[in-house]
Task: structure prediction
Amino acid sequence: MMFEIFFFVLGLILLVVGADYFVKYASLIAKRLGVSEFIIGLTLVSLGTSIPELASSVVASIFKDSGLIIGNIVGSNIANIGLVIGLIASFYLIKTKGAMLKRDGFIMLFAVVLFFLFTLDGVIGRSEGLVFIFFYGVYLLFLFEEKPGEDIRSFIRYFFRLQYLATIRSRVLYIDHKKKKIKQRKKVKRMFEWQLVKDIVFVILSGGAIVLGADFLIREAVFFAGFFNISSNIIGISLIALGTSLPELIVSFSAARKGFGGIAIGNIIGSNIANIFLVGGVAALIIPLEIVKSTIYFTVPFMILMTLLLLMFLKTRWRIKRWEGMILVFLYILMMVLLFSGWVF
Result:
């Protein structure tokens, strides 16, 4: 048993630390090759804290364990709100901007409701996985066109008017050929710089750590589920979700302590959107995800409840008070007690 615990913890450490270094050195490489900081933030940094969920879900897909995947996605979203935001708000007054709630907050709510609707037939298939990835792609393109004062209506107009096609054409496909030649020469020159080579080596090593850590984590999670006769869904919601939410906890706690409440909230909202659209979409493309009844009738509705509570708390002067944070923590603990008491399953 000690051997299995050791490799479970080792896998978790490799996964979290590997994700941190992967984002750090991938960002450095992008900067050296002339990629703007905005694009880096939009892609690498915003996805960075969701890499552990993505890696563990992909490995679980290879193991064909839908319970771990669904448990990880739902459990991570609940932990991000109940544990991460709840704990932080219990110590610090978290303030944010109304625009974040009016736009990204409601996109997060849309994501969790759509996830619930897709679970009702007992399976999230590959076509639904494609829908998730499509929505995530449109959401990222929408952020390219971000303007002050935008709300959810702006995203709806952007989506139904197919404005993302114009974004792809103008921002992604348009290339000034003269500038391209100059940049290409600079890129070739930079490719031979020692610092860039070192960054690439670290990206490869950290990527290997992510893959190895995810493999250890999932293998031992399957072992514990069988050893203690606990469903893999519960293991995913509790141990896996808690472990893969550590990056969000660390980043958000650091941001809140320094007075950047908007970053703390934005990190959680962005991570929850990515967990459903990106992680859920990629996993469903690999294997159709089978949904157990307890997920449909308890854990996913609980995720929607926690999402609604977060948005309601934020709506009051765009801040979360200490007592509201304590409520979120209490609800998270209550869910765990219900799960492990066998009341739900």
